[in-house]
## 1
Amino acid sequence: MSDLWKLTYSQIKKGLNAGEFTPSELATSLISRIEAEDFKIKAFLSFEKENVLKAAAESTERRRSGKPLSEFDGIPIGIKDNICIEGTITSCASKILENYHSPFHATAIEKLLAKGFVLIPRANMDEFAMGSSTENSAYQITKNPFDTARIPGGSSGGSAAAVAASFVPVALGSDTGGSVRQPASLCGIYGLKPSYGTVSRYGLVAYASSLDQIGPLSKDIDGVVDVYSIISGKDPKDATSKNLTAFDPAKAKPVALEGLRIGKMKMSAEIDPDVAKAYESLLSDLESKGAKLVELDFSLLSNSIPIYYIIATAECSSNLSRFDGIRFGARKDPSGKLEDLYVASRSEGFGKEVQRRILLGTFSLSAGYYDAYYGRAQKARVLIKREYEGYFSKVDLILQPTSPTTAFKVGEKTSDPIQMYKADILTTSVNLAGVPAMSLPIGTDSKGLPIGLQVTAPLFHEEKIFGFAKTIQDWSSKVKLPEQIQ
Amino acid sequence: MNLNEESLQKIAELSRLKIDPKDIQAFLSDFNKVLNYVDTITELDVSSVSDEDLYTNEGNSVRADQVAEGLSRSQIESFAPSFQNGYFVVPKVIET
C-alpha cells in the first residue's frame, strides 16, 4: 500500500469507496512522497503533516463506522495559498501576509470540507497570483516535476506541480489570465478556468475581481468534473456569483466527434514548432473522425494581453490598497508617522512584480490617462466578448494550444517582463470574455515536456468541455506523469 | 508613451510605495517597456462600443438585512499587527 500516491483521482475515489485502502493509508503514502521529493520541487510553502493525518484519521473513522460524508470522503486536495482556510496562514506567497491566519473558510473550502475532502495547504504561487512561472513567490521557486531546471508555469505553479509530482491527485488554483490552464499545460495535467460567476470568490484573496476564478487541477478529467461540481453554485456571500445551481456531473458525457464544429487557429511564428505539430496532428485526427474544422480569425484576441494588463492592474491597485499595515499583515513603522507606516509596510511587504502592477494600475486609473487606458480597455473588453459570441455562432468548441511553448528554464524570462507576460497570450482573452476553458495534455515535445490543448466553450457550457475531454482521453493518456523526479 | 522619473515618483506616491533610489532606473526602464506594450490599445478602434454597453442589466445583488455573527475580538487580535483594548493601534494622526 506504500505506492498509493501513484493512483489517479478516479482510482483513489474508487479504491476508497471499495474499501481497498483507508484515507489514513492514502494520506500516509502521499505524505511520504511529499517528504521524499518536495525538497526538489518546492510545491508547498508549509506542510502541516499532523493536521493532514488528523483529518485523514477522522475520515477513516467515518468510513469505518459506515457514515462517510460523501463518496469523496478522504480524498486529499492541494490548496493554493490565496484561498482562505480558517486558522491556517494564507500568505498569497507574499511577505506582507506572512503571519496572516485566516479567521474564516473560503466558500469553496467549506463545500469541500462538507464532502469530507482532506485539505493539503499551502501550495506555492506567484505573489498575489501575479506571474506566469511561480518565480515571483516571496519564498521559493517551484520546479517542474518533468525537469527541475524548468518552471511549472504560474501563478498556480505549486498546485500544478503538486498534482504532476503525485503529491496530491487534485488541487485548487485560481485563474485570472491563465493561472490554472498555463501551469496545467506545462505540467501535463488537466486544469479548468470555470465560467466567471459559477464558483464563489468569497475567501479567494482578490487580485483582479472581474477576472479571478477558482479552478481545479487534476491528474484526470473526473477530478476536474467532481471538484467543479462541488465548488460551483450560487453563493450569497459573493455578489458576482451567478444565480445558478451547482454543476451536475451527470452532464459530463462523451460527445460525438461526427459533425462536431471545432474552431481552430492558424499557427503563427510565436507558437513553438513542437507545440504546433502536436496541435495540428490532433486536429487532423479529429477531422478524420468526422469533426468539422473552422478556421477562426483571432487577430482581435492577439490584443488581449494589453487589454488584460490594463484591467487587471487597475483592479489590483484598488484591491491591494487594503494592505496598509493597519488591520492585518506585516507592519513596518520607521518614524511613528501614519503615512510613513503605510509606505514602509507596502514597500517592504510587496515584491517587485506586485509593485510594478500596482503602479501600472494607478497610472491607468489616474486623471489624464483614464480615458486613453482604462476606459478604452473596458470598451475593448466588450469587443472581445462580442468576438467570442460570434465564434460560438459558428462552432461548438474552440481548440488552441494552451501555451505557445513548453516549460521554459528557471530564470529564462525573469529579466524581461514582456516575454513573461506573453506566456499567457492564448489564455487571457478567455478571462476577459468570462467563458470557460480547460487545458488538457495532448503530447510531449522532443525534450519530453508536456504540451497542453486549451478547449474553450460558450459561457456556462462546461459540460461541452468535459464531454470533449472524455472523448479524447486516449490522447491525454499518452502523457505519463514522472515517477522519478530528477 | 514614456514616463519620466518625476512622473513615476508621483504615481509611486499615489500608490503609497517607495522605490529604492538604487532601483529607480531599472524600475523605470521595465515600467516603460510594459507601458509601451500596453500602449497598443490606444490604436484599437472601439467606436462600436458605447458607454451604455459597459453596464450590465443584471441588477443589484442584495442580501437580507439581518443581524449575523461577525468576527470575534480574539479572532481580530490574532491577525492584527497591533491591537489593544479592542482597538487597532495606529500612529498619532492628530497634530497638536
## 2
Amino acid sequence: MSILIKGATLPGGTTTDVLVQDGTIAELGAISAKADQTIDADGLRLLPGLVDLHTHLREPGREDAETVLTGSRAAAVGGYTAVLAMANTNPVTDTGEAAERVHDLGRAAGLVDVQPVGAVTKGLAGQELAEIGLMARSRARVRVFSDDGRCVHDPRVMRRALEYVKAFGGVVSQHSQDPSLAGPSACCHEGELSGRLGLPGWPGVAEEVIVARDVMLARHTGSRVHVAHVSTAGSVEVVRWAKAQGIDVTAEVTPHHLLLTTDLLSGYDPTYKVNPPLRPDEDVQALREALADGTIDAVATDHAPHARHDKEHAFVDAAFGMLGLETALPVVTTVMVESGLLDWAGVARTMSTRPAEIAGLEGHGRPIAVGEPANLTLVDPAAQVVVDRAASVSLSRNNPWHDRKLTGRVIATLLRGTPTVLEGAIA
Amino acid sequence: MNRHLLSIDDVSADDIQEIFTTAAEMHDVQRRQVKKLPALRGRTVINLFFEDSTRTRSSFEIAGKWLSADVINLSAKGSSASKGESLRDTVLTVTAMGIDGLVVRHSASGAAEQISRWIDVPVINAGDGTHEHPTQALLDGYTLTRRLGSLEGRHVAIVGDLTHSRVFRSNVKSLTKLGATVTAVAPPTLMPAGVGDWSKTAGFATAYDLDEVLPQADAVMMLRVQRERMSGGFFPTAREYTVGYGLTRERLAVLEPGTPILHPGPMNRGLEISADAADALDSVVLDQVSAGVAVRMSVLYHLLAGEETSA
C-alpha cells in the first residue's frame, strides 16, 4: 500500500511531498509518482506520530470507563501512534503476564502501539518490588515502571527500584507527592482558594520534596528517574538544577497543567479535580517556560477517563482525573505555539521524539526521513475548534475542555503507513 | 435574595437585615402557646443529612413545623454512597418524591452547591464540610445584634480551630457585611491555608496571641476544637492549647462586663472554653440555640413562601 502526502510542511519548516510505501517513508521531495491514496496537505504540518508517556486505559477492571480499544481510538484521533498504559488497573500490571495481556489487547485494537507501564511495587502498595525483571523480559518489553496514582513514598523502596531497572535500561516514572504532607482527603492545591472553600489540599512542597529526594537518589544510584506530571514552579527549579548537575532526570507536563488554573475549582466542579491538582497561574507560567527551554522534556496527557457516576459525588469524594488524548495537540498549539514559546520542531520534540526516547520505544519519535517507519501525524495548525465532549470517541465524558475554543486539529494519523485517522475521524 | 442559601455570599447586607427583621417576628412565636404560622402550609421540606447533627437538624425541623410545612428527616449517612450510589442519584431520588425545599448537611465542602446544580428546588446549606454554615452565621449575627445593637464598628474575636470551621468561614463573611471588625485568632497550625491573602481581600485580621486581642473585643466567638477532623498533630497537648487559646477563667476576667461569649456547640468544656465562661452571665450560647429556630424560620419563609410547588 502506498500513500502520497502532497505539500506537507515538516516540523523544521520545509515543505515537501512524502511518499509512504509498505509502512516506511520511501521518498521525500517533489513526487509525481502515483500512489494508492493521496492526501492533500497544503497548509498542514506533518509531525512524527505523537507518543504519550502517560495514559490510563482502565482495562482490565473498569471497562465501563475506557477499554484498550476505545482509548486507542481516542489516542489515534489525538494524533498518537503510541501510548504508555499506566499500571493502576484492576488487577494491577505488576507481572509479566499482566503486561503481555495489555500489550496484546493493544495489538488487537491495532490503532496505536500500546506499551504497558509496569508497577514499581506489588499491587501499587509501595512495599515490595513488583516483578520488574519478568515484565522487562516479557513479550511486552516493559521499560517504564510507575506506581502512578500513588507515590513510591518509602525512600528505600525507591532506591531499590532505581537500582533494579538499570539492568534493563529502564526508568522509574514517579508520581511525586509526599502523602504525609497532607491529610488523606487532600483533593486540590493547597492555597488561598482551598482555605476559603474548606477543601483539604496538597501544598506544592509535597511534590517538590519528592522530586528533590528522587533526583538525589538517581544521582546516588546512577539511574534514570522520570518525574511524571510536574505541576509546580519549585519542582521545575529542582529538575533544572538536577539536569545542570548531570543527573539523569527527565520530566513531563500535562496539557491541563499548561493551561488550567486552580481557580476553576471555585464552583466545586469535579471535572477539574485532578491529581496532581491544578495550580496557580505562577506555576503554570513556570511550566510553560520550562517546556520551552527543555527543562521539561515532554508533554504527557495523563488521560484519565471516568464513568459519569464516578465524578457525580461531592468534590472530595469524586474520582481524580480528566480526559486528554484527543485534545493534547490543540492545547499545546494554543498555549505554546500561538504564544511563540514553542515552534513546530519543539512540538515534535516534546510530543514525539523525547517521549519515545524516554520510554525506549523503537520506531516512534523518529525524524521524517527516508527509510524511517511511517508513524506520522498530520495537523492543521490554524484550525479553530470548539471542543464538544459529546463528540469524544472515549467512553468517558470527563472533559475539562468542553466548550473551549482551541487552535489546531489533527487531520490524519498513520501507524506504520496505515491511516488510523483520516479527516479527523477514525479511518 | 438568591434562590438558594448555600453561602453567606448568597445574601447581601440588606438581605441579612431583612432576615433578622422577619426572625424577630418569628422569635415572638416561640413565646406563644400555639407556635404555628400558616406560611408554608402544604409545602414539603426534606432535611437531608449526610452527616450526624442533632441540634441543627432539630432546629430546622422545628422551624419548618412552626411554619406548618411538612418536614421529613432523611439520614443519608453511609447509606447510598456506601452502596455505590452517586450523590447526584441520591439527591435526584429524594427530590423526585415531590418536595419544595431541601435542607442539606454534608461532610464534604461544596456538596450543597453541587446539589443545587442538579435539582429544581431551593437548597439550604445546613453545613458542608469545612466550607460554610450560613444559617449558623446568621443566627450568630442575629444574637449579637440583639445584644449589642448595630454591629457597625464592633470588634468580634473568632477564636480557635479556624482550619476546620465552617462556622468561621460563614461568620467572617456575615459579620464583616454587618459592619463588624473581625479578628481571627488561632495557632498558625489551625489557620486555613493561604489565610494571609484571603484575610486581605475579605477584610479581617488574624492574630496568634489571644491575650492581645481580648481586651479590644466587643464579642468573643469560641470555636470547637474539631479533633475528629484532625489527622495530624495540630498542637502538642490539650493543656497547651487551653493555655494558649482557651477562654479560661483568667481570660474571662479580662473581658469588659457585657461582652457576649458565643459558641456554636457542642462545647469542649475545659479545652477551648472553661465552665466559668460557658456558664457566665454574658454567655449567649443558649440564646444562639433559641435564635437558631427563629432565623431558620425566617430563611425558610423567605426562600419557600413565595415559591410555586415544583420538582
